[in-house]
Design brief:
The complex is a heterotrimer. By secondary structure, chain A is mainly α. Chain A has one domain. Chain A contains five helices and no strands. Chain B is 42% helix and 19% strand. In chain B, strands 1, 2, 3, 4, 5, 6, 7, 8 and 9 form a nine-stranded mixed beta sheet that branches. The two termini of chain B are 31 Å apart. By secondary structure, chain B is of the alpha/beta class. Chain C is mainly alpha-helical. In chain C, α5 packs antiparallel against α12 and α13 runs antiparallel to α14. The chains are: A mainly alpha, B alpha/beta, C mainly alpha. Chains in contact: A-B, A-C, B-C. At the A-C interface, α2, α3, α4 and α5 of A face α1, α2, α3, α4 and α14 of C. Bound molecules: sodium ion (2 copies). The site of one sodium ion has 7 residues of chain C, from loops.
Chain lengths: 193, 351, 432
């Protein structure tokens, strides 16, 4: 498993080190208080996701110990796991976007000049913003559907719609993160011209 | 129930979807009678393996019958194994028209079909046919039951052969043996029944059992007898406790938009080939599959059957009594005649 | 338009969007939704989007991923990679080229439990490479040794890539994970042998070492014991059926956490960094998996998987050749794309072909991962090579040249696993 590193470290042989415009640079040079506030909100969501992950870890340890030692597993562990993962994934999307860490192919990107890179950022940002906005809207509709249909988990009968609403929250933050970065790229482009 | 219709309202374009494949050159309908209307191709998705005997011995011939009965105008394309949607999503995807036909179990979406749960009542029906007949009686008798499926066109409904209790390593002979065991449950009412009997229940669609029991996520599972072969569970199953634990219920539904897009002649032909008759045909097929499994499959894999003595069976049935009461109370609280439904069902089961 | 054609067009558009730096997952969702709109209806495509976005993340079988990642982050932040290297060095210092062999062994071991090739390569770049250079080892050999072992982290369980393969193909996750073990260890041995033989043939690559490492044998064991112990509990529990895959991940992460806290190797900020990074990597992988499942539903209605299976069956090539062609495709994609992205995009298309040819699905999982690993080391992307080059200051060209013999060894290892499928399938088939 590898994680894409933010920007590749320099290389001496092809003489010219790769200079990629990063999200961090865009925020530093063009971001305002709103941009910073968004990142702070996303950091909080990320933190909550981390807490959910650790809580799920401890819950599952409790389940394993309960089963092994007292032959009494915790009720509904599997369905709790499935729901917790939805929450931790969706709440983690936005800060991951802020950090430019969603998986992209930079092959063309790193070969372009700053203007070209900004143009690609705007293009990809618009596409991603539209997609994630539509997805958020549909998640919202799905939450309504889960609520109306009375969908629950099988054992603990936990209603599913609140979890879907948390996914809506994470997905909205994700869309805003994309939008804010795209606006910064547009600003940067405008400044260059 | 009216809210569940909501997704279909943004589905107006559904009608010409199904007509679109008809624009392609027709292959095998040389003398197509005019009155069946344009050729359509319907997608049929289900979560069960393509090797499921129901797929090979019922659905594949049925698709041919539909084609013949509609003068070659209705073509059905089967996508098995959850290719179009995972098990818990088959029904909803059909309701919104993301697929045209869906075969699934109401139990796979806990909370969504509370009324349907009762036709799977534990320790009740001797075989698939009796249970299927009872299901249709309830269907005709109680509009509330039909309303649970108001966002689709129901083509058929039927019960599987009886489901028993299967375990990997520990034989279950008494109620006490269940304590501490983690057992897969097919539906919410079955989960409650298992917990009332002292087991830990895990709610899981059928296609996930194989991995779960292999890996010890579960110690055993409640499942229709015939399905032990469908999901290839023989090698990972040591014991079967013949307890007539439940009769799993299936539905076969069609997207309302797809149904409305058919010509009246096509609708009539399809109606001929569905409904209670199709349900009984499927029930019989499940039953004979179960007989084959009992005669060949289990012996082949050394699955040992434990028969439950009458008095032990009575203890099991008594243990789940409160589950029925709870079901009745919950339905009555929702304004559904739960008591009447349960009474009729017990009557039909000869309880 | 024939649906297959819509599918092929969709794939082309997706690749174009990816090239224009649209996130891979987003490009897949665009094509899945638009393609489904075209073949079914726009309303149907929209209607299922919400449910697919939710259910795609809500799968028990995927829940192991954050825990495998967390376990890896904890072990990496606790400094176990460095310890693994120092310990192996203690046992191999007398061997000619022993530092390189120790580096490969330690990075394999560390990457195996941590699951992170990048963490492994960067640790070795910081710890092992300076030492090798100090002893006059060739730069290319030093860098290659630091880079190559880490790739096996995705092959030896725990491995998120193997889990993703299992989820995408519905092969049993536990078996897929266990199947990677023997081929992974075998490949590690082949790589170590390669380093040893390289030095035998060209002694100039690695001068003899006369300096006994400062670590004692007991000291080495004390440093490194958590790696095998955590591995044994987590993967042994999985193998013997005591743990589900998710539980094996939880057990591994919990033990790593306890170890780090009790020995004070993890302070609050290291713990925070581990959680933080786990959520980030989980979010990126899950977004890709959600997209991958949507893409799979789109592919199903295009009938492409079916069509591919039939076509390949009809053209009657020898299975060897077909697997070879698939390898070339993965290799080409590996030159431009992240391995998780390749896995998520290609598996739904390649798997049916392999199954139609009568091969074992678990075995193909192992072969797939091995093919993807070779891509980590090839130009122009070769992520790990960038990490090593950046941290050591050894030029990329030298790193790539140093990797050539090891890369060939990886290819040999793939050929061996293809020729002897039992290497992959025997262990999982004996699982209970
Ligand atoms: Na690993
Ligand atoms: Na590469």
């Amino acid at each position: 498993m590898t994680e894409p590193t933010p920007g590749y470290p320099g290389d001496e042989e092809p003489a010219e080190p790769v200079r990629a415009v990063t999200a961090e640079q865009l925020r530093e040079r063009h971001g305002g208080p709103l941009t910073r506030a968004l990142v702070r909100v996303n950091t909080v969501l990320h933190l909550v996701a981390g807490v959910v992950m650790v809580a799920l870890l401890l819950w599952t340890v409790g389940d394993i110990v309960g089963r092994a030692v007292f032959s009494h597993p915790l009720r509904g562990t599997i369905e709790m796991t499935e729901l917790a993962v939805v929450v931790l994934v969706y709440l983690g999307l936005a800060l991951t976007e802020d950090r430019d860490r969603h998986i992209t192919v930079d092959l063309l990107y790193v070969r372009l000049g700053a203007t070209g890179q900004l143009v690609l950022r705007v293009f990809a940002g618009v596409v991603a913003f539209v997609v994630v906005s539509v997805m958020t809207w549909r998640l919202w509709q799905y939450a309504e559907q889960l609520d109306a249909g009375g969908f629950t988990t099988g054992i603990l009968r936990i209603p599913l719609y609140p979890v879907a609403l948390l996914a809506v929250l994470g997905s909205s933050a994700f869309a805003l993160a994309i939008l804010s970065k795209t606006i910064l790229a547009v600003k940067a482009l405008a400044e260059r011209n | 129930a009216d809210d569940t219709n909501e997704p279909t309202t943004d589905q107006q374009a559904g009608a010409d979807v199904d007509a679109e494949p008809g624009d392609e050159p027709a292959d095998d309908a040389p003398d197509q009678p005019e009155d069946f209307g344009p050729e359509v191709t319907l997608t049929f998705g289900h979560p069960f393996p393509p090797t499921d005997p129901i797929q090979t011995t019922v659905w594949e011939p049925w698709v041919e019958e539909v084609r013949d009965a509609t003068g070659g105008t209705v073509n059905i394309e089967i996508h098995a194994g959850g290719a179009l949607a995972p098990a818990p999503q088959v029904y909803e995807n059909t309701a919104v028209g993301a697929q045209d036909l869906g075969w699934t179990m109401p139990g796979y979406t806990p909370g969504r079909f509370p009324i349907s749960q009762i036709i799977e009542a534990p320790f009740m029906f001797p075989d698939a046919q009796v249970a299927t007949e009872a299901a249709w009686e309830l269907w005709e008798e109680f509009p509330a039951f039909q309303e649970e499926f108001s966002d689709v066109h129901v083509l058929s409904m039927w019960a599987m052969d009886t489901g028993d209790l299967f375990t990997r390593d520990q034989p279950v002979q008494t109620l006490e043996d269940l304590a501490g065991l983690t057992i897969r449950s097919p539906a919410p009412l079955q989960s409650q029944a298992l917990e009332a009997m002292g087991a830990s229940a895990v709610s899981q669609p059928g296609p996930e059992i194989h991995d779960a029991v292999e890996r010890g996520v579960i110690d055993g599972y409640k499942l229709a007898n015939s399905a032990t072969r469908v999901f290839d569970l023989g090698p990972s199953t040591g014991y079967r406790t013949a307890c007539n634990c439940y009769t799993g219920a299936f539905v076969f539904v069609m997207s309302q938009l797809a149904w409305d897009s058919l010509s009246p002649a096509q609708q009539e032909a399809l109606a001929e080939l569905s409904g209670p008759d199709l349900g009984m045909r499927l029930a019989e097929r499940h039953q004979s599959a179960a007989d084959e499994v009992e005669a060949e499959y289990w012996p082949e894999h050394g699955v040992e059957t434990i028969e439950l003595p009458d008095e032990e069976f009575t203890r099991w049935r008594d243990a789940v009594g409160p589950v029925f009461d709870q079901w009745i109370d919950e339905r009555e609280a929702e304004g559904v005649p739960g008591q009447q439904m349960a009474d009729l069902l017990f009557d039909l089961a000869g309880f | 338009m024939a649906f297959e054609l819509v599918g092929l067009l969709g794939i082309a558009v997706m690749l174009l969007l990816i090239a224009l730096r649209v996130p891979v997952a987003i490009a897949m969702i665009v094509v899945a939704v638009c393609g489904y709109s075209f073949i079914v209806t726009p309303d149907a495509a929209l209607a299922r989007l919400g449910a697919d976005a939710f259910r795609g993340a809500s799968m028990y079988s995927l829940s192991v991923i954050p825990f495998f990642i967390f376990m890896g982050m904890l072990l990496a932040n606790a400094g176990l990679g460095r310890d693994a290297y120092l310990s192996l060095d203690r046992f191999l210092w007398r061997v000619k080229g022993g530092l390189a062999v120790a580096t490969i062994g330690a990075s394999t071991m560390f990457a195996a439990v941590s699951g992170s090739s990048v963490a492994s390569a960067s640790t070795m770049s910081r710890v092992a490479v300076p030492q090798m250079r100090r002893h006059g080892y060739d730069d290319g050999l030093s860098a290659a040794s630091a880079a190559v072992g880490g790739t096996l982290g995705a092959l030896i369980p725990p491995s998120a890539l193997l889990v993703l393969y299992g989820v995408l193909t519905q092969e049993p996750i536990g078996q897929v994970l266990i199947a990677g073990f023997v081929p992974g260890v075998l490949t590690a041995m082949l790589l170590m042998t390669t380093a040893y033989l390289l030095v035998r043939r060209r002694p100039g690559l690695a001068p003899a070492n006369t300096e006994r490492p400062g670590v004692t044998v007991i000291g080495a064991i004390r440093r490194v014991w958590p790696v095998p112990v955590i591995f044994a509990i987590s993967m042994g529990g999985l193998y013997f059926g005591f743990f589900t895959p998710t539980e094996s991940g939880v057990a591994g992460a919990f033990l790593a956490l306890m170890y780090g806290l009790l020995t004070r190797r993890l302070n609050r900020s290291a713990l925070g960094a581990s959680v933080n990074e786990t959520i980030t990597v989980t979010a990126q992988i899950f977004l890709l998996m959600i997209a991958g499942q949507m893409f799979g539903f789109f592919l199903a209605v295009t009938r492409i998987p079916m069509w591919l299976g039939q076509t390949v069956g009809e053209i009657d090539l020898t299975p060897w050749l077909i697997v070879g062609i698939i390898f070339l495709i993965y290799l080409a994609l590996g030159a431009i794309m992240d391995e998780i992205a390749i896995l998520v995009i290609m598996t739904p298309m390649m798997y049916p072909i392999i199954i139609d040819l009568g091969y074992d699905g678990v075995w193909f999982g192992v072969v797939t991962i091995m093919m993807l690993l070779t891509g980590l080391l090839t130009p122009p992307i070769g992520l790990i090579t960038f990490v090593v080059s950046g941290l050591t200051g050894i030029s990329l060209g030298k790193v790539f040249r140093g990797l050539v013999p090891f890369w060939l060894t990886l290819c040999v290892a793939i050929a061996v696993v293809i020729a002897f499928p039992a290497l992959a399938t025997w262990l999982p088939s004996a699982m209970r």
